[in-house]
Design goal:
alpha+beta
Length: about 280
């Protein structure tokens, strides 16, 4: 993850910067060496030189934001921020998806299930998933790719009962692990509050300390991006009408956007493309 985060616009990773940033994130030189060795063996990178004087070069075509594990899908990040601003009110419709796929197509069935959960749908029972978000176009497109279009049924309803529960907020609490998601956002908010660019003592830091040097800025950016993804990726992005109040997601995303703007302003010229990709995601 750190190696990919440090890829520059020309597809290279500076070995010295990699070892320094990894060290600031609590990793040993031996861990970095083993990671680089594995990435080279897998054909993902080539390497010139050794150790801190090496240069890694990404092999093959440059992946898009989806190929970088630290950058969530831009469309869903923007949807989350629109929700925070009250621009995506819930219309009260639950979207249900059901499918019955034989064991002979198990791989495709599992892929469709992963798509549904990745889009925030929750399982109700075998082969039945629901979500308050209108993800139908994504699900149908994925089912068609997998050759399962004829096995998928889609339904929209305002009348959903699960185990006798009909209240929308109570249903959300039953179907999604909201306490776990909230805890991840609380961690993100705490980390974002401590993030400060080089040379600006005390900004966003409760201890009033300053962060110096480009490596520290990059290390903080990697940590912030990792925490943001850790919170966002399992978040079903439920409408605010279904969430407990206060919900830490909104405050954490606002804090993360502010922290990222400060770190991006302090980033070294020609720094990792992570700054550009993340900036585009938060734009």
């Amino acid at each position: 993850m750190v190696v990919h985060a440090l890829v520059r616009e020309d597809g290279t990773v500076d070995g010295g910067e990699l070892y320094e940033v990894a060290g600031l994130l609590g990793m040993t030189d031996q861990q970095v060496r083993l990671c680089v060795k594995r990435l080279v063996a897998e054909g993902r990178f080539t390497v010139e030189g050794r150790g801190r004087r090496s240069v890694l070069r990404m092999a093959g075509a440059e992946p898009g934001p989806g190929g970088l594990p630290l950058v969530p899908e831009v469309e869903f990040v923007r949807h989350a921020y629109r929700q925070d601003r009250g621009l995506e009110p819930w219309d009260g419709v639950w979207h249900a998806f059901a499918f019955a796929v034989p064991e002979s197509a198990r791989a495709s069935r599992d892929a469709l299930r992963d798509t549904l959960t990745g889009l925030g749908a929750a399982p109700v029972q075998g082969g039945l998933y629901v979500t308050p978000n209108a993800i139908g176009p994504y699900v149908r497109a994925r089912a068609a790719e997998l050759g399962l279009a004829q096995s998928l049924s889609c339904l929209g309803t305002r009348d959903l009962a699960v185990g006798g529960i009909t209240d929308p907020r109570a249903l959300a609490e039953r179907l999604w692990p909201l306490p776990e998601i909230a805890a991840r956002y609380e961690a993100l908010g705490a980390l974002a509050g401590r993030a400060a660019p080089a040379g600006q003592a005390g900004e966003g830091r409760p201890d009033g300390g300053a962060v110096a040097g480009s490596a520290q800025v990059i290390a903080q950016a990697v940590a912030l991006a990792a925490a943001f993804s850790a919170a966002m990726l399992p978040d079903p992005l439920l409408p605010p009408e279904l969430l407990p109040r206060p919900w830490p997601g909104r405050a954490a995303r606002a804090a993360a956007a502010g922290a990222w703007a400060r770190l991006a302003a302090a980033a070294p010229p020609g720094g990792p493309r992570l700054f550009r990709l993340y900036g585009e995601a938060l734009a």
